[in-house]
Design goal:
Helices cover 37% and strands 9% of the residues. It contains six helices and four strands.
Length: 131
């Protein structure tokens, strides 16, 4: 990267301009239809506090790229191709935007993130397995 440094708000705006983000109901519907892999990147303390989305793949943020690279030696079995539609979920929808941008750099061109994160999912009344 070159040029002057940018603040986090500008960085978020830039990376979010690179793909279409997804609302909770759309993510739920895509998951139910088998058209998306939901990936929860929240750390354990948040999962222990709020629960998890049933069926979501839990991969903490620091392992995400290694687990989702379809050609990586440490990939998750679900990481089957670069065409996989991945919906990254953090707690409130900020870290997941940066994570989705990173997955795009790995060639996962359909990666996106959940607007509002897990908290928006829960507020929409979508399924959550309690802690």
């Amino acid at each position: 990267m070159s040029g002057p440094p940018v603040g986090i708000d500008e960085l978020l705006e830039r990376v979010r301009d690179g793909y279409e983000r997804i609302e909770p109901q759309e993510a739920y519907d895509a998951d139910r239809a088998g058209n998306a892999l939901l990936v929860d990147i929240r750390y354990a303390a948040l999962r222990d506090l709020d629960g998890v989305i049933p069926g979501a793949l839990v991969v903490e943020r620091n392992e995400l790229e290694w687990r989702l690279d379809p050609h990586g030696s440490h990939r998750a079995p679900e990481a089957t191709s670069h065409d996989l539609r991945v919906v990254v979920i953090c707690n409130e929808g900020y870290a997941s935007s940066l994570a989705a941008a990173s997955l795009h750099q790995l060639g996962l061109h359909r990666a996106t993130d959940l607007i509002g994160g897990f908290q928006a999912w829960k507020a929409a009344g979508l399924p959550v397995t309690p802690p």
